[in-house]
Each structure stands twice: as C-alpha cells, then as structure tokens.
Design goal:
Rossmann fold, two-stranded antiparallel sheet, 7-stranded mixed sheet
C-alpha cells in the first residue's frame, strides 16, 4: 500500500531543470505517487544488496507495478565492494535485459548502493534517470542528496565518479529500525557535521536529542533528517559541482577518508572515520587560531556521545599525510582542509605543516 502524501515532509533541491524533491516519512518504501509516476511504462532496475533486499525489495517491487519491465540487481554488501567489478554487474544486467536510454534505476540501500547506482546511471548510455531510496541514516542525510556518485580506488576513496542528480529521493524512516546500532551512529556523524559547519542551533538540538536519536525515535529522526537535508540542499543549490562552498561539507572527511583507505575499506564505517576526522579537523582549527579549546572539547564530547570514535589510528603523521595526498581537494598532491572559522562557519584552505602534525598528534592520542 502506498503512503499518503499528507504524512510526508518534503523539500526540494533547486537546480533548474535538474531540480528534484526529497520526501521524508514513514512507509515510503511501499510506494509514493511520485515514484509511481516516474516508473510508469518504463524499464526499471532495482539495485540493492542481499541484506537490504531481503527486507525491502518485495514492497518496493510491488510499488513499481506500473513499470513495463522490472528487474533486480543484487550487489555484494559493504564498502569493500564499491568497485569496478560491482559496477559492471549493474551494466551486465541492464545490457542483458536490453535496457534503453529511457530506463530508470532505483537505488535501494545505503551510501554504497546509492553511489554505485548513481554512477551507473550517470554513464549508462551516456546518462539515464535514477531514484534514491536510502535505507541508512547516513545515506538519508548525506550521500543520497546532491548527485555525487562514485566508486573507490585502492589509492583513494570516491576518486572515480561523476555528478549526476537523482530524479527523486525517498527517505523512509521506518527502515532505520532495522539498522545495527553502529550504522545508526555512523549517520549521526554527518548530522553533527551539518550543525558544526552551518547551524549551531541545530548542533545544540542534536546534543539534546541524542538519546532519542540513538533509540530510533521516529519523530526525532524525522525532524533531524529534515534539517540536515535542508542544509545540504541549500549548499548543493549554491554550488552543485563543489567549486566553492560545497567543499565545506567535507569537514572531517580528508582525515576520515585517509583512515578508511589506510585501514582497508569497510574496516571503519564512513561515519566512524568522519567522527574521528572531525575531531582532528577541530584540533587543526584550534591550532590555526580560529576556535578555542572549549569548542574542540564540545565536538569531541558530542561525537563520543553519539558512540563514534574520537581518535584515529595511531599511525605516524607521515602515513596520514601520504594518504591525504590522494584526496579530491588536493592540488598536485598537496591536500586542503576544511576548518572551522567559528562554530557554524567553515572554510577550505591549505595549512602549515606544524599545525597539521600537531592536530594529528592530538587526534590520535
């Protein structure tokens, strides 16, 4: 049964002819009129993995009953499989079933599924439509919004990809009830990031609501997801291709991506690495004279209360610097960092070596 539109919170990503709605509510996996409209009469491929597919593929498939052809592609589960090999499994299925350039791909899963499905949609027959149905908190507040799609390379995370906006995002809060606690915390990392870089009042609300969010309270989650999506949608609308302000959304990510690559993809969840990375980025911001020790301690405390790591692996600084040289914000191998000029205001810049090394030491202690 499809959900009533009246029960859904909606906002838009304003990108001219590439604009699209984000719908947040309960029961959306079972269908929504906008999804039915997009799928009607088209070849539709659901892309998912075994974990998510066993839970939610059947109701989503039933909601796509108006499709002319419907197939499902199941990929291996986990960041370690965000590779060319997995991507080719999508292409193999589309070509085997003679999918044309008017087809629709539907990403049912977390950030890995969303990124790979979006990348496949970006390049299959030079670009086809896709829909995001994110089933993790991290994907609902971050990766499903904004059109950044990619796969990993052994030398760097998300280094091979494309900008390709979805036609629709359906964030069903009911799916979060089946998330492992570790995955729920990983999503909270991105929400804390949004507050730190853009909205101190939102950060304070997250701090107050952490017990409810960790308990998967539907009302608390819906309100927080909505505010995070509002923040990200505004940034994407202002800078779709990350030429300027959008890069500030990577607060903590240069450090975090280094942790993910160095540990081996999948050992740390993305949100866990970003949690530790935000502490390092805050330490760096303090050493540059922008924020005081109280702000650093507050962020460390909040990240820890969300049950996220607050320290990175105890590697030498040279190891971190080597890993961070392969980063999308790097220029000829020299990384740039997102720093807090103050709580709620971020900037991207190069930093002195001594400040970076001091922040790494503090962030791994």
């Amino acid at each position: 049964m499809s959900v009533s539109a009246a029960t859904v919170r909606q906002l838009g990503v304003s990108l001219g002819e590439r604009s699209y709605p984000i719908l947040i509510g309960a029961g959306l996996v079972a269908g929504h009129p906008e999804l039915a409209r997009l799928a009607a009469g088209r070849q539709v491929a659901i892309v998912t993995n075994d974990t998510v597919g066993d839970l939610y593929e059947a109701p989503l498939a039933a909601a796509l009953h108006g499709a002319a052809v419907r197939i499902t592609v199941r990929l291996p589960d986990g960041e370690a499989f965000k590779t060319w090999e997995s991507l080719n499994r999508i292409f193999d299925a589309l070509l085997e079933h003679r999918f044309d350039r008017h087809c629709l791909l539907v990403a049912l899963g977390g950030g890995v599924i969303g990124d790979m499905t979006g990348f496949a949609a970006a390049v299959y027959q030079r670009g086809v439509d896709f829909v995001q149905v994110p089933t993790t908190l991290l994907a609902q507040v971050d990766s499903s919004v904004g059109g950044k799609t990619a796969i990993n390379h052994p030398l760097g995370k998300n280094m091979i990809g494309a900008f390709h906006q979805p036609r629709l995002v359906l964030a069903d809060v009911d799916t979060l009830r089946t998330l492992p606690a570790r995955e729920l915390s990983a999503g909270l990392a991105e929400m804390i990031k949004h507050g730190a870089i853009a909205d101190p009042d939102y950060l304070a609300r997250l701090e107050a609501d952490l017990p409810a969010l960790l308990a998967c309270d539907a009302d608390a989650l819906t309100q927080a997801i909505l505010r995070s999506c509002e923040i990200k949608a505004a940034v994407v609308a202002a800078d779709e291709r990350e030429a300027d302000v959008r890069a500030t959304l990577n607060f903590g990510h240069t450090f975090g991506h280094a942790i993910e690559a160095g540990m081996g993809y999948g050992q740390w969840l993305h949100g866990e690495a970003v949690g530790a990375g935000m502490v390092m980025a805050a330490e760096l911001s303090q050493r540059l004279g922008y924020i005081d020790a109280g702000v650093v301690a507050r962020l460390r405390r909040t990240i820890g209360a969300a049950k996220l790591p607050v320290c990175g692996p105890a590697w030498p600084a040279e190891r971190y610097i080597e890993l961070m040289s392969v980063d999308k914000k790097a220029t000829q191998g020299t990384p740039k960092f997102v720093v807090l000029r103050k709580l709620g205001q971020a900037a991207v810049q190069r930093v002195p070596d001594d400040a970076l090394r001091a922040a790494l030491a503090a962030g791994t202690a």
